[in-house]
Batch of 2 targets.
Target 1
Amino acid sequence: MKSLVVYYSLGGNTQLIASIISQKIDVDILEIRPEKEIPKKGFMKFFLGGKSVMLNENPKLLNEKIDLDEYDTIFIGTPVWAGSYSSPIASFISKNHLKGKKIALFACHSGGGSDKCFEKLENTLLGNEFVGNSSYNSPLKVGFDDIVMQVHSWIDSVVYLYNTK
């Protein structure tokens, strides 16, 4: 069976982590793309992102529905918005049947909230086995080598967990 990294990234932080994961281990990668993107800068990015989470919006995605049957392990990456996962990830989850998978979660933030985000994702994705999670504080602002080392360390622990179960 294969592994897949599914992620949404507004400002590039989550994309960086997804890219490091895909360079470390053999995985397919899928970037979630909403039909209508929110602004990448300024106050409106925070306002509209938070509003979409608070109102449980599921934006229309440009991505087609994907056949997840060929994947046994799925990494899901999201920015933290208002203490939760992003609305494009919510759309992906609602469009795709995720049951009986090994799930690893990663989140990027600029001020915390990842524990609540992971809790909400786990509650939404009941019926799966969670093999790890990791959060990253503004990884584009941290030294590249430091982020690579953090992600590699996490991946090593996740790979160990899902290979021993």
Target 2
Amino acid sequence: MLQLDLLRHGQTELGHTLRGYTDDALTPEGWQQMQLEVLEKLQQPVQWQAIYSSTLIRCSHFARQLSQQLKLPLILNSDLKEMNFGQWEGCSTEEIYQREPELLASFWEKPSFYTPPEAEPLHEFQHRIQRAFQLIHQQMLENNWRQVLVICHGGVIKLMKCLASDQSPDHLLKIPAELGQLHTLYLNSHNPQSYALEASEK
């Protein structure tokens, strides 16, 4: 099995909003959240052999510094970006609820059937993320890497946890993925679409 440690970015300047493709930076607290999580992991026998990251700066800035610190190759991949929320980009759920309460409720309950205005449909998001992880799988095999770090977003981690636990992607918005938190997935080296969660997360 190949091991993928997924690290969600920390707190950002836009705070509690649907950021999606919006390219806001980490706050000092957000940077510290990620540092503390990585430091705790590094105190264990971690064997990261490469770092992958979303191209959005709330992920990529930290990834660049960490790759230099650990002297590991860094691979930036735009397919690892968060879901694009269209007209809801940069808005809090409270704001959206005030304007479109029924639409927000529909999206939260069944995102595969409701797409926010001008946003990325869930099936397209899933296809993009699976493409990104299939590439990671391929490159891990080519380079004989057994364990990598992937710095990405809440939606990405939630989707991968859905797939790893055989849940419908419609459960994505109900799955926890806290800011600055690590999650471990195991990938079948012979099947790029076969994932398993770390036992503590099942």
